[in-house]
Amino acid sequence: MLPPNCSAQDDRGRQRFYTEMKLTENLTVFVTSGTYGNSIDPIWDCGTGSPDMVMGLNAGLFAYESWRDVVDFLNHNRNVTGVFTDYNEHSGLNCASLGGLISRESLSINPFRQPRAMPVLSMNLPQISNGFMYVFNAQPIVSEW
Q1: Are 99 and 72 in contact (CB under 8 A)?
Q2: Measured between alpha carbons, how far is 83 from 91 in angstroms, rounded to an integer?
Q3: Domain residue limits, the chain
Q4: Containing H/E element for 7?
Q5: pLDDT tens digits, 98-111
């Protein structure tokens, strides 16, 4: 839940919730909430152009059709990094495959995952909130040192 002072209307008159966090002198994070392809256009403008990074926690890219536009956007904009987490390794592997072989190979256990498993009675796979992480369009590390 974002406070009321974090709301505004976008250029199409839709209600938009966002917050701006200036972390350092040259790093500002803009956070917006909504559903890609529905209330958020994948090529949305935060006032500075397209996003540098798209994040989806427990995203389930295969489970929700609304992610299709995001996957297409990331596949056509290789300069934008996508970081996603998933509940289980099997789902994470399938979803990571949408980003190609490098994305599939990036699947790993998320070091910031929830510390305990989630009970899911419909399947016999370990379920951990934010348990597995994968990256679309990983960018090379550039050191300024």
Answers
A1: no
A2: 15
A3: 50-136
A4: strand 7-9
A5: 988 899 999 998 88
